Amino acid sequence: MEGRDGSPARTGVFMTYVDAVQEAGAVPVVLPPVNDEEALATYAQRLDGLVLVGGRDIPPETYGEEATATLVPMPSARWEFESALLRGWLATDKPVLGICLGSQFANVVQGGTLIQDIPTEVGDEVVHATPAGVHHRVRIDPGSRLYAILGESEVDVWARHHQAVDSLGQGLTVVARSDDGLVEATEMRSKPFALFVQWHPERMAGTEHREKIFRALVEAADHRD
After folding, report:
1. Residue of 128, 136, 200, 209 marked active site
2. Which parts of 38-172 are beta strand (E)?
3. For every one of its 225 residues, what pLDDT tens digit does the chain have, with 9 covering 90 and above?
4. What residues have CB less than 8 Å from 191, skipping those under 6 apart?
5. Among 11, 43, 55, 221, which residue has the fewest nearby CB atoms (within 10 Å)?
6. Does 152 participate in catalysis according to the annotation?
7. CA 72/CA 75 separation, integer angstroms
8. Residue 9: what pLDDT?
9. Percent helix, strand, coil in the chain (nearest 5)?
10. Which residue among 82, 100, 184, 209 is the active-site one?
11. Active site (annotated) includes residue 202
12. d(CA 177, CA 31)
């Protein structure tokens, strides 16, 4: 969303998110980061479901830490917008799906913290990011909504992230981990549908995995009608 070299700021998302939402039977709408209370209220009122997408790192001062050398911070306008949007959205009990950074947003908004750099703080037992993305295994809690959606306790996922959940935010439950013990998915069980995954199901085009996750979001939105 930020401009470089004096160019105007811009906003947008990868079409993989748009395609995944549309293929699941919903009409995708990309939200510009308008930091205005009336606009935020209108988004929450008129939209049926929310997808929080990937991007750069959350400013660590928002969870009480100093930035490490590996941090690639997002523009402050994005943090201010999406954190306010998510807080307001959760109050509506409408369905929300957080992906990668979206999962981290949920954790920080709920008072949790992040591992700022997996390779330096955790190690490379499991590779979570390469420039082209990487596949790795995730183990899912059989008692979770995520398991009910996918019908599997182990899945192979596409990932590209160097941060992850550290201390868990209030109201969140860990429902999946990778083989190195990192949190890979959380849920808010007090909400009708609030699922946050660290990997990128939208990048898994043509798979039942992508279809099931986005279809679950859309069906949760339809169920509110």
Report:
1. 200
2. 50-52, 96-99, 114-115, 134-140, 154-159, 164-165
3. 445 556 777 888 999 999 999 999 999 999 999 889 999 999 999 999 999 999 999 999 999 999 999 999 999 999 999 999 999 999 999 999 999 999 999 999 999 999 999 999 999 999 999 999 999 999 999 999 999 999 999 999 999 999 999 999 999 999 999 999 999 999 999 999 999 999 999 999 999 999 999 999 999 999 765
4. 90, 93, 96
5. 11
6. no
7. 10
8. 77
9. 35, 20, 45
10. 100
11. yes
12. 30
Name the active-site residue from 82, 187, 202, 209: 202
Rg (C-alpha) for the chain, rounded Å, is 17
Residue 113 tokens read as 């913290």
Fill in the amino acid letter for 212.
K
Using an 8 Å Cβ cutoff, are 64 and 113 in contact?
Answer: yes
- Spelled out in words, what is the top-level CATH class assigned to the domain 23-223? alpha beta
Query: Which pLDDT score is estimated for 2?
Result: 47
Three-class SS state of 145: helix
Catalytic-residue membership of 100: yes
Calpha distance 66→113 (Å, rounded): 12
Q: How far apart are CA 84 and CA 95, in angstroms?
A: 16
Give the start-to-end residue ranges of the domains of the chain.
23-223
pLDDT of residue 4: 55
Helix (H, G, I), strand (E, B) or coil at 178: strand
Q: What is the structure's pLDDT at 205?
A: 95
